Amino acid sequence: MDGDPLSVIKKADPELFGLIGDTRDKAFEEGKLTKKDKLLIALAIDCAKHSVNGIKALTLQALECGATKEEIAETLRVAYYICGVGSIYCAAEALKDIL
User: Fold this and answer.
1) Are residues 26 and 50 in the same domain?
2) pLDDT tens-digit profile of 78-93?
3) Less CB within 10 Å around the terminal CB: N or C of the chain?
4) Which of 49, 39, 43 is nearest to 78 (CA)?
5) Rounded to the nearest 5°, which phi and psi values hold at 3?
6) Looking at the structure, do residues 38 and 9 belong to the same domain, yes or no?
7) Cα(first)–Cα(last) distance of the chain, in Å?
8) pTM over 0.85
9) Left if phi > 0, otherwise alpha if psi is -120 to 50, otherwise beta: which for 34?
10) Residue 67 to residue 94: CA distance in whole angstroms
């Protein structure tokens, strides 16, 4: 199994897979918000949704785009304020080998 969580979609419906990729590329392209800012927003949302794999992936992408550990921590503070302690337990599990 390859590392792409959507590989099953790619195999079953390449057209849908292409649409998903196009939408992702559009959502994260540089604009008034930087790609880093958009990744931090997405990270907060994945914390709210308790998506461990999403938190890991988005944190690594944000760090690659220049986010600092402090910016990641501030993002987690926002998720905690809005969504509660469950989002932080999920983030702690996701980030234990990253931060």
Assistant:
1) no
2) 999 999 999 999 999 9
3) N
4) 43
5) -80, -5
6) no
7) 27
8) yes
9) beta
10) 17
